[in-house]
Design a protein that fits this description.
The complex is a heterodimer of chains A (611) and B (121). With 611 residues, chain A is an alpha+beta fold. Chain A is built from 20 helices and 21 strands. Helices cover 49% and strands 22% of the residues of chain A. By secondary structure, chain B is an alpha/beta fold. The longest helix of chain B is centred in the last third of the chain and has 16 residues. In chain B, helix 1 links the parallel strand 1 and strand 2. The radius of gyration of chain B is 13 Å and the shape is globular. Classes of the chains: A alpha+beta (611), B alpha/beta (121). The interface between A and B is medium-sized, with 22 and 18 residues.
Chain lengths: 611, 121
């Protein structure tokens, strides 16, 4: 009955109800599931175990567990540790370690282990479940490497987009290509499209000269555990060092852009990287010889269809193969590099444009100021002329009477009358001075049409010095004439020019009054289309706040002076098409620079002689 | 004794020149504008006229023109605070052009010169 019922039960039993199902599961599992006894001898061995470890059941059963454990783990008593763990925690769960499969093949595994007990709750051994995670581990490792690589590339790229200056950007690019943390090529060469002609020209390279040097560098880097940043920072210092050979190579590389057969130009035209593997593929014998290899990658640098240059990378030192992935990564990096270089160029262009704009703006401002000054002058001039004439009549009367009265004082006068005569003389003198001022002012106000003729600058200079000789001697001033040319004849108005030079020299001499042993230096030279005449003194200089006003009429710092000298000079110069500038330092001296055009009306004047 | 007609609209100037030229040994007749000057010429027949240019009413250049219309033998010296009338062709028919100054030497010299030239003719 019992057996019947059992049988019956057997007939209709639930297929998932029996023990056999566990046997099935274990037997067919893809994980290794096996048991060991307390002596760690293998007692059961499923198909998954054979699959993972490569040993058939017959080979495995009876052998000690140790034969699956790498030697170094045995040395650190890994299995004892696991037992202790089980005692403490009740089981070992998802422990990742390494095991040895058949053929001494190392595999990464995930091991779980639980103790087995008999009916009396005595431990008879352990059940082990081991999963092969080598694939996952490999993936993880690759992934980590990639992440590292991307992180460093990202670091370099962020560096590239800062305004570093072209040179530093190029360096950073090459470091990115060759660094241990970057793309790990042995050497990298950078060629840029020249901005003034359609040609690729080698700019910069990084890499050791040979394997011995490479060994040295890599060991050094390893020793220092240099990060990418360190490598970048130390770059500037090593210009004369290990990279000299590659830089010599790169400096010889020149490829015209119309050489459509050249591998560099092909890469640029196609916009895709080219992996050259053989001499024939390269096609440029010269290039192979220069690089010392026919196995390299050419990555084009292109921004919005504009060719920027090419990046060439190789593993000429280690002869490591260049993978598809290396090529792809190099191109990604090259795209960023191209943008960075282009940005730097644009930045430079922008800077230049801004600089030019600034200059134009300043020029404009100066012209505007000149125009304003001229306008002001003409108004002042008109007014001054009117006033001057109105004043002239009463002055003539005052001075005339003073003179008349003075004549009336008898020569053999008593003392009182003598001083009266002296006073009258003072009145007459002062009136004379006022009248002189008026005359000069009226000269200034009245436009003078220049009379152009051939003018010998040297002889005018000499004349001026002669005219000032008494003062020059009196103040012990040394005169230096520094002219680049022996003979300078230009077409200008000699009268006005003499007046200009005389005024400047007079000012210079006056600035040095009371300073023993000053120097008056008169020079002339040619600058572009201008004849430049300079008058320099070692006098007291002009105060900063006065500099803007010295060319204005009636402005003077002298105790006696009309304040018209420089105003008249600049007006004369305006007529002659020239201009005047002033440079001065208080206590050191002043230099006035007069510029006269050598070309009149945009044409070379053939009567001008400078030699 | 030579007679000089001195024409100027400013009284103080006239006073000064009357005294100065008188001391030089000339007979000095004064006129304060062009009209007076023309009348004086009719009446006094001066040997020389010193003529201001800027005056109220008729200016000195026009007055000189009228004088010379009647008698182109009378020498005229233009005497002005303005140098700019030298550029005016009207002034070219004058015997001399002197810019007013407190120093009368130039004018006196010019008067002497012109009178000498005239008496030689």
């Amino acid at each position: 009955m019992n057996s019947l019922s059992v049988y019956k039960k057997d007939e209709m039993r639930d297929p998932f109800g029996g023990v056999e199902i566990y046997q099935n599961i274990v037997e067919n599992a893809t994980d290794a599931i096996f048991t060991v006894d307390t002596d760690r001898r293998i007692r059961t061995w499923n198909a998954g175990s054979s699959l993972i470890f490569g040993y058939e059941k017959e080979e495995a059963v009876g052998r000690p567990l140790e034969f699956l454990v790498p030697k170094e783990l045995l040395d650190v008593r890994e299995l004892d540790m696991i037992d202790k763990m089980i005692e403490r925690e009740g089981a070992l769960r998802n422990y990742e370690t390494e095991r040895i499969a058949k053929g001494n093949k190392r595999i990464a595994v995930n091991q779980s282990q639980t103790p087995l007990y008999d009916g009396q709750r005595r431990r008879i051994g352990d059940a082990l479940v081991i999963k092969d995670i080598s694939g996952r581990k490999e993936l993880e490792k690759n992934l980590r490497k990639k992440i590292e690589q991307f992180a460093s590339l990202n670091e370099i790229e962020s560096l590239l987009h800062r305004d570093l200056g072209l040179r530093r950007i190029l360096e950073a690019i090459l470091v990115g290509v060759t660094s241990e943390h970057g793309l790990r090529f042995n050497r990298a060469f950078l060629l840029l499209v020249q901005r003034d002609k359609p040609e690729l020209k080698g700019e910069l390279a990084i890499g050791p000269a040979d394997s011995r040097e490479a060994q040295k560098i890599w060991e050094e880097l390893k020793r220092r555990r240099a990060s990418l940043k360190d490598t970048l920072a130390s770059l500037g210092l090593e210009k004369e060092g290990p990279d000299r050979t590659v830089n010599e190579i790169v400096s010889r590389l020149r490829v015209p852009l119309d050489d459509e057969e050249h591998v560099f130009v092909k890469a640029l035209k196609s916009g895709k990287p080219v992996h050259v593997r053989t001499r024939d593929e390269c096609g440029d014998e010269e290039l192979v010889r220069a690089l010392g290899t026919a196995n390299f990658v050419v990555a084009p640098l292109i921004v919005r269809n504009n060719p920027i240059g090419v990046l060439v990378a190789d593993n000429a030192i280690t002869s490591n193969p260049i993978s598809q992935e290396d090529v792809a990564l190099l191109q990604i990096f090259a795209n960023h590099a191209a943008v960075a270089i282009n940005d730097s160029w644009m930045m430079e262009n922008l800077k230049n444009t801004i600089e030019a704009l600034k200059q134009t703006n300043e020029e404009l401002k100066r012209n505007q100021e000149r125009l304003l000054a001229a306008e002001k002058l003409s108004t002042i001039g008109e007014m001054a002329a009117k006033v001057a004439h109105e004043i002239r009549n009463p002055l003539a009367t005052i001075g005339g009477f003073a003179r008349a009265l003075k004549k009336d004082v008898p020569p053999d006068c008593p003392v009182n009358d003598c001083s009266r005569s002296e006073y009258l003389q003072i009145i007459a003198d002062e009136v004379k001075r006022l009248e002189d001022i008026l005359n000069r002012l009226l000269d200034y106000a009245r436009p003078i049409e220049p009379e152009y003729k051939e003018t010998d600058i040297h002889s005018i200079m000499e004349n001026v010095v002669k005219l000032l000789e008494p003062e020059i001697k009196k103040h012990n001033i040394q005169v230096v004439q520094a002219c680049v040319a022996k003979e300078i004849k230009i077409v200008t108005d000699p009268r006005l020019f003499t007046e200009i030079l005389l005024n400047l020299a007079k000012n210079a001499v006056q600035a040095m009054e009371g300073r023993e042993g000053g120097e008056l230096r008169m020079g002339c030279r040619v600058e572009g289309n201008d004849l430049v005449i300079s008058v320099r003194d070692t006098g007291k200089g002009i105060q900063e706040e006065d500099k803007g006003k010295i060319f204005k009429p009636f402005y003077t710092t002298k105790a006696r002076g009309t304040g018209l000298g420089l105003a008249i000079i600049s007006q004369y110069l305006q007529r002659l098409g020239g201009r005047i500038d002033c440079q001065s330092e208080v206590g050191v001296g002043t230099e006035f620079t007069v510029r006269l055009p050598l070309k009149l009306g945009g044409k070379d004047n053939e009567n001008n002689t400078v030699r | 004794m030579k007679t000089i007609l001195f024409v100027d609209d400013e009284k103080n100037i006239r006073t000064l020149y009357e005294k100065e030229l008188g001391e030089e040994g000339y007979r000095v007749i004064l006129a304060s504008d062009a009209k007076e000057a023309l009348e004086a010429i009719e009446k006094e027949k001066p040997d020389l006229v010193v003529m201001d240019i800027r005056m109220p009413g008729m200016d000195g250049l026009e007055a000189m023109g009228r004088i010379l219309d009647k008698d182109n033998k009378i020498p005229v010296i233009l005497h002005s605070a303005y140098a700019s009338y030298k550029d005016n062709f009207m002034s070219w028919s004058a015997d001399a052009y002197v810019v007013k100054s407190s120093d009368l030497v130039e004018l006196k010299e010019k008067i002497k010169e012109v009178l000498e030239r005239c008496s030689n003719e």
